[in-house]
Amino acid sequence: MTGSVGAPAERREGREKVSGTARYAAEYHFPGRAQAWPVPATVARGRVTGVDTAAALAVRGVLDVLTHENAPRLAEPDDPTLAVLQDPRVPHRGWFVALVVAESLEAARAGAAAVRVAYDAEEHDVELTASHAGVYVPEEANGGHPAVREQGDPDGAFGSSAARVDVGYRVPPLHNHPMEPHASTARWDDGRLTVHTSSQGAGAVRAVLAGLFALPKERIVVTAEHVGGGFGSKGTPRPDVVLAAMAARQTGRAVTVALPRRYLPAVVGHRAPTLHRLRLGADANGRLASVVHEVTTHTSRVKEFVEQAAVPARVMYAAPHSRTVHRVAALDVPSPSWMRAPGEAPGMYALESAMDELAGELGMDPIELRVRNEPDVEPDSGKPFSSRHLVECLREGARRFGWAGRDPRPGSRREGPLLLGTGVAAATYPVMVWPAAATARALPDGTFLVRINATDIGTGARTVLAQVGADALGVPLERVRTEVGSSELPSAPLAGGSSGTASWGWAVHEACALLARRLAEHSGPLPEQGLDVRADTKGAADAESAWARHAFGAHFAEVAVDTVTGEVRAGRLLGVYAAGRVLNARTARSQFVGGMTMGLGMALTEGSTMDAAFGDFTESDLASYHVPVHADTGEIEAHWLDEDDSRLNPMGSKGIGEIGIVGTAAAIGNAVHHATGVRFRELPLTPDRMLAGLLGLRGTNDVRTGPAASGSGPVRNS
Fold first, then answer.
1. 272 CB contacts (<8 Å, ≥6 apart)?
2. β-sheet bridge partners, residue 255
3. Quick one: which of 225, 265, 596, 699 is 20 to 30 A from 340 by CA?
4. What confidence score (pLDDT) does residue 455 get?
5. Catalytic residue numbers?
């Protein structure tokens, strides 16, 4: 072993990215390449009755305008959101109804503005409420999870519990907004399709395009060499790649479609709003008797997608009686989809906030409450955990954070107009792994080449896979090269669900270990082309496991609440994780910190509202949808335990891309309650909401001397 795995190796593509030589999907400048700009629908429901393209075609440089009347016909897709320009229906505002193709981006944009579309508009319904007449219980939530799970008598156990909380929380719609918007460049050559796209999985894109255009996969090449983020929204093909391929076929030229950022919320997915009701019942010693988590969310009328936000409650705590339910309403809204830690991020915000409220009811330290309810096996399945070191994360985090010196009384710390507080929350994320194939080649010059259709979405996959290969080969890291990001490479699953490195690394490890054995048996010089081996983990990576496999973590937050402006500042965030074997200390810390920063945004700045009159998201770009910037972030620390789990994959690794976001919002919300004595149950915690809550304290007592400051019972604000 060379010790490459675990070392803080620098990203191999880092210099290319900072120097501007890394090429992204919209930067492939083929001769004669055209640019295209989509035209979104301006009604929330209805049909297109006419498209006047004359003015658009008169714009200098415009080549063509694609509509449902002249666009290439596609086979019916499995994902209905990709059936673009195929019929006159408008299922939601922002649905693309035309595409203008031109010599330049400026001409395409001007042409799109000149297109005139007539509609037969229909009444629309876009507002989600828990009592909506159309709410139903689906068969499954996202990920194939049963919509309902029940054990014992949760209602009876709740009613007889000594301590109870029955509370509701709301998480608004959230948007992925990667740094690089969705973009694709496509060209046809003698019946062959080549696509450069910003995607989390080139193989998935190729499979979908093959179906849509009735082509053998062998006649399609998809590359995703560099991807500027995705956070789930690029997990499967989006309309940009389909439109680019259609326009390229129509015009006979290479065509780039780069979606304007303000169009993204309507066409690339979003985290659906979730309405939560939590009922927790415990005995006087804090042992849970009943856990009930009910979630209501929305989906579109195009396809069903149900955020699995109640699923984490099936994993976290020991309770003999439980019920978890998902309900959904199909509305005239854009189709929701994956966003970093789908299900876990909103679900754990609600569950961990409710646990904090229960700790308050019991007068118990919130860490001790969690420790007291550690399960021996996974509550839902009854399987033993492959490893579960949540208690160790909580204890280590408490030590590093200085939790022992905390005054538990809400409102007990103040500096001038600032109320100070600290909070804690737990985190979990499932371990997922899928089959993959990889090749490894030994070359006569003593170097090695590893090839696999992995996608580096900014996580450092190229580097980490080289580290895995170097360790399996027993050679220095600098002697191993990697090729990723093309459908011409050995097949591999997409980068999603924190499963990428675990899945790809397994195949790379197997290929390199096999090559090392072959080399040990080989005598004499290597052939000029080198010595190749291939490994495929099908049948092993996807085998049913006897173990419940999850990563866990503990989040701590310190906040300051300005009683004058209502601003909340998270001056310190700390996370401690148990995520298997960390393969690269540098990139792992980057992923943890990135997730925590995204959780900070979820707690304090990020949120979207659905305009009931117009049927679209009001916050459609980064001027109105506020992601955290450097000025919003304080001190962020990420640490991890050395976890030895041999029941995962040959590397012993768990995914780390998403667990960082999972508990952050709850930790911040709990810290805000500790600071103010007010329980805010709707995200984000913006100044207007904070001031309204603090105003309730001023009704009978000033916030400086009232109940929150004296440490008497919490004042609740729903």
1. 173, 297, 298, 299, 305, 307, 336
2. 34, 186
3. 225
4. 97
5. 658
Q: Quick one: pLDDT at residue 3?
A: 84
Gap between the Cα atoms of 549 and 652, Å rounded = 11
pLDDT of residue 657: 94
Which has the closest alpha carbon to 533: 649, 449, 446, 447?
449
Give the N- to C-terminal CA distance of the chain in Å, as an integer.
Answer: 56
**Measured distance CA(188)–CA(488) in Å, rounded:** 17
**Beta carbons within 10 angstroms of residue 451's beta carbon:** 22
Which pair of structure tokens corresponds to residue 20?
């501007």
Question: 148-151 and 163-171: which strand pairing?
Answer: unpaired
Q: Three-state SS for 379?
A: coil
CA 154 to chain centre: 31
Contact 616, 266 (CB under 8 A): yes
3-state secondary structure of 266: helix
| Residue 707: C-alpha distances to residues 84, 658, 678 (Å) | 57, 38, 10
The answer for residues whose C-beta is within 8 angstroms of residue 399's C-beta and 6 or more apart is none
308: its two tokens = 């699995």
The predicted pLDDT at position 71 comes to 98
Q: Which structure tokens are listed for 194?
A: 């080549």
The whole-angstrom separation of Cα 239 and Cα 92 is 15
Contact assessment for residue 186 and residue 255, using Cβ atoms and an 8 Å cutoff: yes
CA distance 243 to 376: 51
Q: Is 670 left (phi over 0), alpha (psi -120 to 50) or beta?
A: alpha
What single-letter amino acid sits at 617?
A: F
The ranges of the chain with pLDDT < 70 are: 1-2, 697-718
Is the separation of the CB atoms in 126 and 612 below 8 Å? yes
- Contacts of 24 by beta carbon, 8 Å cutoff, 6+ apart: 180, 183, 198, 225, 226, 227, 228
> pLDDT tens digits for 369-420?
999 999 999 999 999 999 999 999 999 999 999 999 999 999 999 999 999 9
Question: How many Å apart are CA 245 and CA 254, to the nearest integer?
Answer: 9
- Say if strands 288-300 and 274-282 run parallel, antiparallel, or are unpaired: antiparallel
Reported as a single tens digit per residue, the pLDDT across 204-225 is 999 999 999 999 999 999 999 9
Give the pTM.
0.96
Region class of 12: left (phi > 0), else alpha (psi between -120 and 50), else beta? alpha
Three-state secondary structure string covering 143-169:
HHEECEEEECCHHHHHHCCCEEEEEEE
Tokens of 341: 């830690």
Asked if 657 and 592 touch (Cβ cutoff 8 Å), the reply is no
Token representation of residue 9? 């190796």
Q: For 160-201, where are the alpha helices, taking DSSP H only?
A: none
